[in-house]
Amino acid sequence: MSEQGKLSRQEAGQRGGQARAEQLGHEGYVKMGKLGGEARKQQMSPEDYAAMGQKGGLARQQ
């Protein structure tokens, strides 16, 4: 902790992240990722996925 018992933003963020990780656990993060992936899937068309894949391949080549 920093001066006078106050938390810095970084320390507060770390504590919050640790608390959330304890609440969710590994399975919670897996579930959250799948929900996010499904939501993104509904937003994008197959053509969008193809374009995204092309961009990813070009970025790795550089």
Write a structural description.
- With 62 residues, this protein is mainly α.
- It has one domain (3-61).
- It has helices spanning 9-43, 46-61.
- The chain is elongated, with a radius of gyration of 19 Å.
- The protein starts with 8 loop residues before the first helix and ends with a helix.
- The mean pLDDT is 87.
How would you briefly describe this protein structure?
This protein is mainly α and 62 residues long.
Order of helices and strands: HH
- Residue fraction in strands: under 5%
Average pLDDT, all residues: 87
Class from secondary-structure proportions: mainly alpha
Question: Which overall shape is indicated by the principal axes computed on the Cα atoms?
Answer: elongated
Distance between the termini: 43 Å
Mind telling me the C-alpha Rg? 19 Å
Query: Which range best describes the helical content: under 10%, 10-25%, 25-40%, 40-55%, 55-70% or over 70%?
Result: over 70%
Work out the helix count: 2
Largest sheet: none
How many beta-strand runs?
Answer: 0
Q: What is the total number of structural domains?
A: 1
Low-confidence region ranges:
none
